Amino acid sequence: MNHVKTIRCFIGILLAIVLLLTCAACSREQEVIAAAPNQIQELTVARQEEIRANIEDAYTTEQNLTQQPGQLTEEDFPEGTKIMYLTFDDGPSSNTQEILDILDTYDCQATFFVVASGYDNEYQNIVDHGHTLALHTYTHDYETIYQSEEAYFEDLDAIADLVYDLTGVTTNLIRFPGGSSNTVSENYNIGIMSRLAEEVENRGYVYFDWNATNADASTEPYTADELYEFAISYDYEDVIVMLMHDTDYLDTTVECLPRVIEHYKNLGYEFLSLNENSYTAHLEIVN
Ligand SMILES: [Zn+2]
Question: Separation of 204 CA from ligand 1 center, angstroms?
Fold first, then answer.
């Protein structure tokens, strides 16, 4: 009898130890998840120095055309990190408030690449909701901005001034209308994208393209369901820069947004605003 009691007691202690170890492992995992953003920040800065030091010789060769010195790639992020950078171009618009409300509901940060759309109250509204304002251009008129480098920078300065006057925000985060890979600029100036991409960096700007989109800028008028299907098809990427648009006529983007956020949240993505150390998702420049 005593012998049985001893065995039971021994098993009890063993179970207690196993339980204790499991709990310790769980809470450590939670700490690691919670600490991820800071770790990313540290890693990206250190990695950026390393890239600057190593890449200079290689970066002029053709296969490295889109790999600028200092640009971070997905390999620079710790294993298991999943980040979503939602970006909204061409706003603000009559849909901005609704987009902000949705982002609030899901506690997401996003980045708005703005133009001079006439919705002057919405710029500060975006800032007040904790999101990042970035520059797209003042007119977004391809013929105007891609005439020449001078014309482009004049237009970029104009949107920078507007944003500053309305919000007090200054930013070096930009996105080229049509993306750096656009071909429309060929109609106005051969080679201008290659020169602009270099010149904006010389002037201290960081330009962003994207590696995902809900295809809302397509000439095809997709339904909200179709935009959702496009948007959720990038979950093989650990770091996603998602192109969407904030315009008067794109109610479908607003409609699909909650479901897109839910999809990626369920997969463990964190929704952050872009900053100058973020993954730039540069596309290949073809003009
Ligand atoms: Zn645009």
Answer: 21
* Distance of CA 258 from the midpoint of ligand 1 (Å): 22
Q: How far is the CA of 23 from the centre of ligand 1 (A)?
A: 49
Query: What's the pLDDT band for 74 if we cut at 50, 70, 90?
Result: low
Distance 87 CA to ligand 1 centre (A): 11
Please report whether residue 9 resides in a domain: no
Q: 185 CA distance to ligand 1 centroid (A)?
A: 13
pLDDT digits (tens, 9 = 90+) for 14-52: 555 544 444 443 333 332 223 233 333 333 444 434 433
Cβ–Cβ under 8 Å, residues 113 and 89: yes
**Structural domains counted in the chain:** 1
What is the distance between the alpha carbons of residues 194 and 285, in angstroms, rounded to a whole number?
A: 6
- Whole-number Å distance, alpha carbon 266 to ligand 1 midpoint, is 29
CA 90 / ligand 1 centre spacing (Å):
5
Beta bridge partners of 82: none
Q: Which domain holds residue 139?
A: 82-271
- Give the type of residue at 262: E
The structure's pTM equals 0.75
Tell me, what CATH number does 101's domain have?
3.20.20.370
- Which pLDDT does position 10 carry in this prediction? 56
Handedness of CA 248, 252, 253, 257 (dihedral sign): positive
- Going from the Cα of 31 to the center of ligand 1, the distance in angstroms, rounded, reads 39
Pull the structure tokens for residue 69.
């010195």
